[in-house]
């Protein structure tokens, strides 16, 4: 039997010497328990005062959590040790299956506030009273990667919102892209199999740059519109806070008389659309694979609450029939210029989760979780989703009672006769567990409400039972072209670069060629650029089910650059300092950033910080090789003369400036920084995006310039593909 822990060297917490540098609040450790050392030297922390006593899951207090029960000090562990067995048994079962798609996600709590009533078109309670707030929970995700994959994979982002309305939960399970790859849910398993790692070799992880994906795509022309979106910078968001969200499908709003209005849902970020560039994304994935989740966590904890506007496009059957395409086809949008987005509310995320697993992992969304007043349409992709989510959650969460898990439970009264099953928490009370019954108005339990209850839209049947794709779904290229031509030149270039990158990873030339044959139907210039980038001739155009309509007007709403931020607020400068950095200049810069509600992190050769010119010790957030410039939106380089000489021979310091330059970031250059730029080979290339920082006036111009997303004119000088003779 293990001996009770001897009272060896008892050390009260709080006796540890205080650190010299500032410690973030979450890192402050307060303990009020005594520590003792056991006979084998192990640490025992003993509860006293207000400290909770450790117990088993059955509530039995635990005397020793460091040693299992043994027959003799060196003998075998005994089966009798229920505490040991319970602890290991529970640990063994900690993992549940990860989501089959969207496995990597991050979530936060907040609220939706109605700013414009939709009472004229829907009875949905959430859309009735202006100013009313509805609690919400939002999970952002990537699609293809597994739970541990990096945040900056080139991928669609999930944007799933659960509204806890007074008449039941509403899940708006959207993405950051308003269209999808396929038109019919029966193709979803094929799409996802093709996108995920190949089944024999189990790579590549969280990437579409491989043969299987592009093979499937090349044989699925309906995906071409989506391909333009995923090859654009939309799939490289700077932050969850800076991306749009879309419900994708056409849904229905229903009024009290059952009249239907079609609706498409849009989320518009208050921070403006912002993305990173591909080379930067690749490096962020190494430097901080948690870049997006950290950003959301930090922003909310700092009180900089992310916000989106909810917009709706409302239309009727007649308007729907006015298009050449079908509003039930999820590969199509209705351009905002044709049908403006009406803003009806705002979503604010103001609270991080208490526990990642309990909330973010266990949350379960479903497209058909809709309250009275909202209904689905016949979109065949949506119809399939309505089945798929509940089915997968039955397995993922282990039974039919996942609606009892607090994150999934409605916040309005829930009353029915469903009972039992794994982990049942809310079985009906009393004798009645069926209806109709005659146990009286209270003991008999709940009854139907024909007025308030959910009613489906009374849609007319559409014809004979058929396994067929409607002809109205056959235009695969027109909107792909419209998207491409709606982009600014720099954005079009990025689409071409991304296609060349991805297809260069495809080993089979016939697959590359088949993809380019579709691009010919979208835009001859794009096809020529990509073919040239791949070193192949432009193939014949793919056989098109419908000729491309080249008359669609470009839509400004589709460009990130045109819908970017208008100030630097909420973004971050990496300030590189050394011993001897000019204290006044540093103070002027940080004051200007504070005034702008922008953020900064101090990067220094040592994590202990740097001693500024006035003798103050400035704590560093990052050591130079752990805080590369890809983690920041702009950089300021403020070394002393001696510091600059040291940085000039330091590889991470040189990368700090060359990467920022290559990624078209604004660069503030302190008066003594020249040797670093010299050694990094940039001194002759410095442009208007590289701004001298000498005093308050320069600082103001620098912070103002940073308000733009990037200094794009530089890209032509830093990209081999863009050189005229390349
Ligand atoms: C417009 C097309 C689609 C969009 C916008 C979309 C969006 C999403 C989102 C945002 C999630 C993550 C939910 C979360 O954070 O927990 C998700 C998960 C999932 N989606 Fe989709 N999806 C689409 C198409 C489909 C289709 C066609 C299917 C199947 C027929 C499907 C099946 C699933 C499954 C099985 C999950 C995992 C759910 C879970 O384990 O809880 N999705 N989808």
Automatic annotation (TrEMBL):
Gene3D superfamilies referenced in this protein's UniProt entry, alphabetically: 1.20.1370.20, 3.40.50.880, Catalase core domain
Keyword hit for Nucleotide-binding: no
Entries under CDD domains matching the protein: GATase1_catalase
Assigned keywords, A-Z: Heme, Hydrogen peroxide, Iron, Metal-binding, Oxidoreductase, Peroxidase
Domain Catalase core: 55-443
Keyword field contains Glycoprotein: no
GO molecular function annotation: catalase activity
This enzyme's EC code(s): 1.11.1.6
PROSITE patterns (UniProt xref): CATALASE_1, CATALASE_2, CATALASE_3
InterPro entries: Catalase, Catalase_AS, Catalase_clade2, Catalase_clade2_helical, Catalase_core, Catalase_haem_BS, Catalase_immune_responsive, Catalase_large_C
SUPFAM superfamilies named in the record: Class I glutamine amidotransferase-like, Heme-dependent catalase-like
Reactions this protein catalyses: 2 H2O2 = O2 + 2 H2O
Entry-linked PANTHER family: CATALASE (PTHR42821), CATALASE-B (PTHR42821:SF1)
Function: Decomposes hydrogen peroxide into water and oxygen; serves to protect cells from the toxic effects of hydrogen peroxide.
Protein name stated in the entry: Catalase
Native species: Sphingomonas naphthae
């Amino acid at each position: 039997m293990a001996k009770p822990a001897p009272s060896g060297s008892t050390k009260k917490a709080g006796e540890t010497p205080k650190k010299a540098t500032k410690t973030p609040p979450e890192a402050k450790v307060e303990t009020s328990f005594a520590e003792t050392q056991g006979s084998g030297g192990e640490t025992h922390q003993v509860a006293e005062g207000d400290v909770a006593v450790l117990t088993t899951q059955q509530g039995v207090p635990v005397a020793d959590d460091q040693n299992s029960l043994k027959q003799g000090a060196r003998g075998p562990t005994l089966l009798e040790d229920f505490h040991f067995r319970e602890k290991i048994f529970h640990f063994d079962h900690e993992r549940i299956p990860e989501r089959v798609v969207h496995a990597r996600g991050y979530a936060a709590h907040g609220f939706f506030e109605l700013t414009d009533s939709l009472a004229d078109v829907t009875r949905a309670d959430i859309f009735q009273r202006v100013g009313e707030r509805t609690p919400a929970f939002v999970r952002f995700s990537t699609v293809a990667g597994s739970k541990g994959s990096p945040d900056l994979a080139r991928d669609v982002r999930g944007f799933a919102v659960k509204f806890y309305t007074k008449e039941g939960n509403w899940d708006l399970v959207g993405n950051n892209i308003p269209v999808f790859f396929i038109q019919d849910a029966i193709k979803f398993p094929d799409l996802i199999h093709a996108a995920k790692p190949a089944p024999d070799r189990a790579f590549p992880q969280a990437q579409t740059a491989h043969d299987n994906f592009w093979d499937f795509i090349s044989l699925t022309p309906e995906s071409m519109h989506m391909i333009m979106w995923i090859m654009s910078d939309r799939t490289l968001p700077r932050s969850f806070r800076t991306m749009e969200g879309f419900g994708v499908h056409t849904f229905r709003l229903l009024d009290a008389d059952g009249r239907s209005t079609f609706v498409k849902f849009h989320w518009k970020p208050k921070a403006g659309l912002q993305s990173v560039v591909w080379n930067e994304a690749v490096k962020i994935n190494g430097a901080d694979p948690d870049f997006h989740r950290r950003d959301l966590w930090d922003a909310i904890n700092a009180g900089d609450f992310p916000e989106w506007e909810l917009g709706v496009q409302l239309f009727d059957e007649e308007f729907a029939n006015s298009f050449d395409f079908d509003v039930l086809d999820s590969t199509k949008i209705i351009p905002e210029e044709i049908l403006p987005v009406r803003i009806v509310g705002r979503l604010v995320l103001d609270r991080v989760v208490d526990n990642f697993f309990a909330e973010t992992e266990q949350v379960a969304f479903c497209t058909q979780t809709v309250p009275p007043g909202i209904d689905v349409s016949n979109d065949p992709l949506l119809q399939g989703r309505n089945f798929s989510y509940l089915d997968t959650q039955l397995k993922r969460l282990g039974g039919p009672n996942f609606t009892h898990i607090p994150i999934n439970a409605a916040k309005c009264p829930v009353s029915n006769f469903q009972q039992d099953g794994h982990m049942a928490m809310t079985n009906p009370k009393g004798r009645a567990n069926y209806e109709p019954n005659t146990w009286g108005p209270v003991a008999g339990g709940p009854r139907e409400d024909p007025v308030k209850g959910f009613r489906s839209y009374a849609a007319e049947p559409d014809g004979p039972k058929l396994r067929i794709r409607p002809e109205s779904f056959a235009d695969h290229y027109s909107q792909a072209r419209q998207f491409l031509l709606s982009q600014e030149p720099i954005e079009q270039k990025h689409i071409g670069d991304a296609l060349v990158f991805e297809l260069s990873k495809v080993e089979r030339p016939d697959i590359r060629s088949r993809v380019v044959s579709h691009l010919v139907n979208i835009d001859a210039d794009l096809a020529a650029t990509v073919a040239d980038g791949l070193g192949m001739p432009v193939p014949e155009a793919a056989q098109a089910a419908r000729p491309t309509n080249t008359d669609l007007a470009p839509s400004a709403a589709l460009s990130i650059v045109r819908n970017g931020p208008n100030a630097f607020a909420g973004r971050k400068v990496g300030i590189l300092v050394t011993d001897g950095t000019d204290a006044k200049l540093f103070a002027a810069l940080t004051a200007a950033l504070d005034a702008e509600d922008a953020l900064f992190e101090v990067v220094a050769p040592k994590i202990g910080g740097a001693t500024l010119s006035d003798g103050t010790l400035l704590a560093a957030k990052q050591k130079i090789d752990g805080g590369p410039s890809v983690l920041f939106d702009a950089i300021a380089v403020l070394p002393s003369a001696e510091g600059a000489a040291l940085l000039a021979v330091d590889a991470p310091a040189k990368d700090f400036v060359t990467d920022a330059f290559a990624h078209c970031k604004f660069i503030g250059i302190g008066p003594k920084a020249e040797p670093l730029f010299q050694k990094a080979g940039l001194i002759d290339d410095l442009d208007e995006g590289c701004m001298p920082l000498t005093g308050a006036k320069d600082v103001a111009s620098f912070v103002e310039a940073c308000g733009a997303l990037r200094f794009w004119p530089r890209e032509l000088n830093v990209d081999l593909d863009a050189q005229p003779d390349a």
